Structure to design on (419 residues):
């Protein structure tokens, strides 16, 4: 079993390069199926979720070829519409194959996707949208069969702006007959990236980044070369680590426009922030100010994926902070581990009160999800003594070279195998 051994007390300072966005790369990799051609994707992060997605694409008959952060997917050889239970369970993003396969072959056989234990994650909104486009859906013994003799454009109203459901609907509608309008869409930058990629393949989609998206279906798409946007969640994680440890950091290849709510909260804690071209600079104050209200919500609100790193950072603030999680009901689970390190956090329902007490104590802890896990690394960086963190496979689902990058920023962290 692999674990991180962290010796706290070092500031996170220096420069690092932000990688491509996990949550853009995964749906875009899935949607290469729609092109029926060769797509060259650059800035793909080298994370285990990407490896899982490439494995699925290969098993479907596509050919993937990876060279560093560039992945070429040739989907001409697609030969099946079925994904095994085991592969579906490897990650949440396996669900993106649903819209892509349906759009390309008119059928898909999947099961419930896996992913982190951060709350119940139904796919009813995905299935609702696909049904509106003309798919029939049958579910027996965990197998979900979707088929459509013809997908037709439709008017689709989401009851909640689900990121994944918006993306699956865009994919299925891209090659449907006629005009689709998606209402109450999620507005995350990763959705705009999916739109831009599909448009580069010949699709006709507009409105991503707003509540209403229009898709004019195209009979066939073609291949393209495309660069994935920088990861705003990875950016926010390194900024939180620097702020929490009293450091000074410059992120290269970042996109500050995607981080407005995040930078705003860091400014409220007293951090000095500078933005120049694709660089974001942060200098932490001597002591962070608490946040009286940090509430997660769909973009452009504060992202749920950064709730745990920020909550962890707030254990160092001077006073009491209040955090409210509105997206996933189990996203405070990691606070149990933080409490073992001496953090004073009270959780009631979807609200957490964080008492900024300063010093945490290193100890043996367990990551149970991706962002909670990254937060426990930040806790280890702030703590006195040694922290041993297990369950790091969750972290490696979404952060490329996490321990190396932190070491480059001054952290004393090493990865060990076994025991
Ligand atoms: C690969 C990817 O992009 N993952 C992100 C995506 O996940 P994901 O696409 O799964 O998140 P959604 O936006 O769909 O989920 C948000 C909320 O809607 C609910 N819901 C969703 C779909 C559905 O059919 N029915 C339903 O009730 C979920 O339970 C949750 O409470 O957006 C989340 C919210 O920003 C992020 O935390 C994830 O990092
Ligand atoms: C919850 C996350 O990812 P996924 O949707 O892939 O589980 C995340 O990136 O924090």
């Amino acid at each position: 079993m692999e674990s991180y051994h962290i010796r706290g007390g070092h500031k996170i300072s220096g420069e690092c390069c932000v990688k491509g966005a996990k949550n853009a790369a995964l749906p875009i990799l899935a949607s290469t199926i729609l092109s029926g051609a060769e797509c060259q994707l650059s800035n793909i992060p080298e994370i285990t979720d990407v490896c899982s997605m490439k494995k699925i694409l290969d098993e479907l008959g596509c050919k993937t070829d990876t060279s560093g952060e560039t992945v070429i997917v040739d989907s001409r050889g697609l030969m099946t519409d079925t994904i095994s239970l085991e592969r579906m369970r490897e990650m949440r993003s396996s669900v993106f194959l649903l819209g892509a396969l349906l759009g390309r072959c008119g059928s898909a056989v999947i099961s419930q996707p896996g992913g982190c234990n951060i709350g119940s994650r139904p796919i009813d909104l995905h299935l609702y949208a696909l049904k509106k486009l003309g798919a029939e859906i049958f579910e027996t013994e965990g197998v979900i069969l979707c088929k459509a003799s013809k997908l037709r454009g439709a008017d689709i109203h989401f009851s909640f702006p689900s990121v994944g459901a918006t993306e699956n609907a865009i994919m299925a509608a891209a090659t449907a007959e006629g005009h689709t309008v998606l209402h109450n869409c999620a507005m995350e930058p990763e959705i705009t990236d999916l739109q831009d990629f599909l448009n580069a393949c010949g699709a006709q989609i507009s409105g991503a980044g707003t509540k209403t998206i229009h898709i004019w279906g195209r009979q066939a798409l073609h291949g393209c070369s495309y660069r994935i946007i920088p990861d705003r969640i990875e950016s926010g994680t390194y900024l939180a680590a620097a702020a929490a440890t009293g450091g000074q950091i410059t992120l290269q290849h970042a996109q500050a426009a995607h981080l407005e709510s995040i930078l705003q909260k860091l400014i409220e804690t007293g951090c000095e922030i500078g933005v120049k071209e694709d660089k974001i600079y942060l200098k932490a104050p001597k002591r962070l100010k608490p946040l009286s209200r940090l509430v997660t919500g769909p973009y452009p609100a504060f992202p749920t994926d950064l709730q745990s790193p920020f909550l962890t950072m707030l254990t160092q603030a001077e006073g009491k902070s209040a955090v409210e999680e509105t997206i996933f009901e189990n996203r405070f689970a990691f606070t149990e581990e933080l409490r073992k390190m001496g953090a004073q956090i009270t959780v009631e329902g979807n609200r957490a009160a964080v008492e900024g007490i300063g010093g945490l104590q290193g100890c043996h802890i367990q990551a149970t999800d991706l962002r909670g896990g990254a937060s426990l690394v930040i806790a280890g960086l702030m703590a006195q003594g040694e922290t041993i963190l297990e369950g790091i496979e969750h972290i490696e689902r979404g952060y490329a070279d996490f321990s190396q990058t932190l070491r480059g920023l001054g952290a004393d962290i090493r990865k060990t195998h076994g025991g």
About this structure: Residues 31 and 100 are 5 Å apart (CA to CA).
